[in-house]
Write a structure and sequence with these properties.
By secondary structure, this protein is α/β, with parallel strands linked by helices. The protein contains 10 helices and 17 strands. The chain starts with 10 loop residues before the first helix and ends in a 5-residue tail after the last strand.
C-alpha cells in the first residue's frame, strides 16, 4: 500500500495482522502475553522526507513505489502530522515562483513536534549563495506569518542555518511534562504519541528501586531522562556528538540531577568496564561507584554485538527496545540462557508497514545468579 492510499478504517485490521506476525515470530521462545500499543490511525508521523520533481517551473513532492520503483506525486501525506501536510502545501507553492530557491533542489525533509514547531531541510545539488540566503529569509518570514518554522539549507559540504537547527518537543509522560531538544538531521522517534507509550511502559516495567540504571545508545535522552525518576543514578552512553550535546541540554532543561552521559559507543563502554582500555572521556567518572542492576538497550537495526550481549547478561534486569524483530530474536537466543522474558510489548511506531517496534523486559534466572 502506498502511503498516500492509507485509510483510517484499515488500521485495526493491519494492527491485528502485525500482532499475529509478532506472536508467530517469537513463538519459539517462552514469551508472556504480548502487550499491544496502538498508534493513531492517521497523522502519526512527526518526520517525513520527499524527493522533489521538476517539470519546467512546476515543482512537486514525490515518492517511489517500493515494488515498481515508479515515482508518484504526493500532494497530501496521511501518515504525516497535520502540520507537516500544511507546510508541505504552502512551501511548495512559494518555491515554485522563486527560481533561485527551487533550482537544483532535490529533497525536502520535515520534522515537526506536538507543540506545533517545525523545521524544514532543503537539499540542493548546488552551492547556496548569498542570494539564496536573502530570498530564503524572506520566504521564511512569509511562512512565519502562519507557522512556527525554521529552515535549513544543505548542499555539498555546506549547511546554512537561518535561525536555529532544532525544535523543542514537549511530551506529557504520566502527567509530567518533559521537553526535548531535537536536532535537525539527527535521530528522533518518528511517532511521538507511541513514543510516550513506550516511555510509560519502560517506567512501569522497571519500577521504583534503590539501584542504578545503565543505558546504552541513549540518543538525546529520550528514555534516560524520564527513567531517572525510577533510579538512584543513571549512567548513559551515546557515540553521536550531536546527540550528546542535545542530551546535556535536555538534562539541564528538565532539571535532572542524577543522570550522567558518556560519549562512548557500547563497544567502548564494554572495553572500559572490563578494564581492557582506558579512555580520557572517563576522567572524573568512577564506574565502580555505580550499582547498576538494570541495563537499557535500544540498539540500531543490527542489534547487539556478541561482546555487548555478554556484558548485559551480567545485569539482573535487561530492558531491550528493538526496531528489528529479526535481530531481537537472534539476541534472545543468547540472552535467554541467563534471563527470562517477563514483559513483552509491541509498539506500532510504523503503521501500515511490516516494521514492528518491540520491547522486552528480561530478569535473570535464579540459576544464573
Amino acid at each position: 500500500m502506498r502511503p498516500t492510499e492509507i485509510k483510517a478504517e484499515k488500521y485495526a485490521d493491519q494492527l491485528q495482522q502485525k500482532v499475529q506476525s509478532v506472536n508467530s515470530d517469537f513463538a519459539q521462545f517462552p514469551m508472556p502475553e504480548l502487550e499491544v500499543f496502538a498508534s493513531e490511525p492517521l497523522h502519526y508521523r512527526m518526520r517525513a522526507e520527499f524527493r522533489v520533481w521538476h517539470d519546467g517551473d512546476d515543482l512537486q513532492h514525490i515518492m517511489f513505489d517500493q515494488n515498481t520503483k515508479e515515482k508518484y506525486t504526493v500532494g497530501h501525506f496521511p501518515p504525516a502530522c497535520k502540520l507537516i501536510n500544511q507546510v508541505m502545501a504552502a512551501l511548495i507553492e512559494h518555491l515554485k515562483v522563486h527560481e533561485e530557491l527551487r533550482r537544483k533542489l532535490f529533497q525536502i525533509d520535515y520534522m515537526a513536534t506536538l507543540t506545533d514547531q517545525i523545521i524544514v531541510s532543503l537539499l540542493y545539488h548546488k552551492p547556496l549563495s548569498e542570494q539564496w540566503q536573502t530570498e530564503m529569509q524572506a520566504l521564511r518570514a512569509k511562512l512565519r506569518e502562519t507557522f512556527n518554522i525554521d529552515i535549513i539549507g544543505r548542499a555539498k559540504k555546506q549547511k546554512v542555518i537561518l535561525d536555529k537547527d532544532f525544535v523543542t518537543e514537549s511530551l506529557t509522560i504520566n502527567d509530567r511534562e518533559y521537553t526535548f531538544k531535537q536536532i535537525e538531521n539527527s535521530f528522533t522517534q518518528p511517532n511521538a504519541k507511541v513514543n510516550i507509550k513506550m516511555i510509560e511502559w519502560a517506567l512501569d516495567v522497571t519500577g521504583k528501586n534503590d539501584t542504578d540504571l545503565l543505558e546504552l545508545y541513549c540518543g538525546a535522552g529520550n528514555f534516560s531522562i524520564p527513567l531517572a525518576q525510577n533510579f538512584k543514578q543513571v549512567l548513559a552512553t551515546e557515540i553521536s556528538k550531536t546527540s550528546v550535546a542535545a542530551a546535556q541540554d535536555n538534562i539541564a532543561d528538565n532539571q535532572i540531577d542524577n543522570l550522567k552521559i558518556l560519549r562512548m559507543s557500547s563497544e567502548e563502554f564494554v572495553q572500559a568496564s572490563q578494564g581492557v582500555r582506558q579512555f580520557r572521556r572517563l576522567e572524573g567518572t568512577d564506574l565502580n561507584s555505580y550499582n547498576c542492576q538494570t541495563v537499557l538497550v535500544d540498539p540500531p537495526r543490527a542489534g547487539l554485538d556478541d561482546e555487548t550481549i555478554k556484558m548485559v547478561q551480567a545485569y539482573g534486569n535487561i530492558l531491550y527496545i528493538s526496531c528489528n524483530p529479526e535481530t531481537l530474536k537472534h539476541n534472545l537466543e543468547q540472552l535467554l540462557k541467563t534471563h527470562e522474558v517477563t514483559r513483552f510489548a509491541l509498539f506500532d511506531q510504523f503503521p501500515y508497514t511490516h516494521h514492528a517496534e518491540c520491547g522486552v523486559y528480561l530478569q535473570q534466572k535464579p540459576s544464573a545468579l
